[in-house]
Amino acid sequence: MLIAKQTTLLKKQATCILLALIADVLFYQQPVGWTAGLYAALVFTMLVVFNRHLLHTSASKIIGLGVATLIVELVESPGLLPILIDGLGLMTLITLQKRKDLASATLWIKDIALFVERGGWQWYRDCKAIKRISKNKVLDKVNYSFAVMPVTLTLAFSILFILANPIIEKVLSGLNWQLLNPFISYSRWLFWFLISLTLWMMLRPRFLLAKEIVLGQPINLDRWLNKQTIILSLALFNGLFFIQNGLDIVFLWHDEDLPMGVTYAEYAHAGFYSLLAINLLTSAFVLLTFGDHRQAFQTEIAKILVFVWLGQNIFLTLSAINRLLHYIEAYSLTYLRIAALMGMALTAIGLVLIFARIQGNRRNLWLINANAIALTATLYGVCFINMDRIIANYNVRHCLEVTGLGSNIDLPYLQSLGPESLPALRWFQVNAKYSPVQASKAGELITNLDNQLSVESANWRAWTWRKQRQLATNALTLKPEPIGTSGWRY
């Protein structure tokens, strides 16, 4: 039994060193391309090889399929988000093997936290274990002091032979010792240490599962709330929200002009953070008064009023999305604005789930899990969307230089998106009839991005399927298309 454990430990040590070496070749001071997918596939395969029960449950098979799909996406076009989600997927598989079931989102978060905390020191614990094992071996009984003299004299003779033989000295002096410099840099040592630490953490998962928190007695709200207070509060809240939603209906949904001196930028920016706070307060109030063990407050009138209030909150969130869409149409699309749209959409989904939780008389744990699934599904789906292409295409088709409306094209921002903006820039160069100057600048930018794409594709590490397809269509000449003044075209 002891020999089997030692053999498994040695195999994992060799695998960890091999994977760290591969990571050094693929990533150290190198651009990231399809190699991210290759390395993720290697790590996933090694985990399955060392742990045959990793994909035995139905949940683990679903997560494993998701991880494999992300690996394909990393070969297609690597990004920080798919890399992070892929890592979380691998850690989830490891924790799920012990728990056997995804009980709740809160337990999953705590399991991951314990896994990372324990795994950060696992190498140190294993070093101590290896030291204890080695005490039972024959080699440990050898007195290593006997090796001092032969090793020392061998080194001394070597140095003297080098000094005495000019041929050996000339050969050694002719060697390019600078080749060793990259291997003795502190940054490379740190890279190896972090990679090895992460790999060993996954190869040797030794952690305890988190325990579910047993909530005590609910907070006694009888001093501040009763049935009549809940009904009065919900009636007042509905009145306030009706006024706000009425203004949004007039100025947003009926396309009425904003009051003098108020721009869509001000209207959108002023609303986002305050609306987010409103939704958080709404959620807290509803969960507090209609949460677990609050049946005393849940009268039929109160349920009707809270459903109406939640409906108004959802409409308020949709109005905020409409505000942002107006703002994007007047100005341009960016990553932050896409993130804001996604955040608002998830907020609306969260409010709908609160409605379902109250109507179905479910527990707060169900609500937490449902929101976690919605967030995970959204982030997972985003990994497969070419946001750079969408942003570039939308901005060139809605800019002032093409439509005669909206804001000027932000060419530096398109340049920051990289070669993915090339098709949009080529289209813009042909269709920018209101600004030949900007069309000429776009041509210069196209040349620079073409060169960047060629340089990146020439490096085998930076190659991706998406870049290869882009290179294949790089020589196509776009013809003028009919100009649209609205709509999300890409």
TrEMBL record:
Coiled coil: none annotated. The keyword Transmembrane applies. The keyword Membrane applies. InterPro entries: DUF4153 (IPR025291). Keywords: Membrane, Transmembrane, Transmembrane helix. The chain crosses the membrane at residues 37-55, 142-163, 183-203, 230-252, 272-290, 302-321, 333-354, 366-387. It comes from the Bacteria. It holds the Pfam family DUF4153. This is Uncharacterized protein.
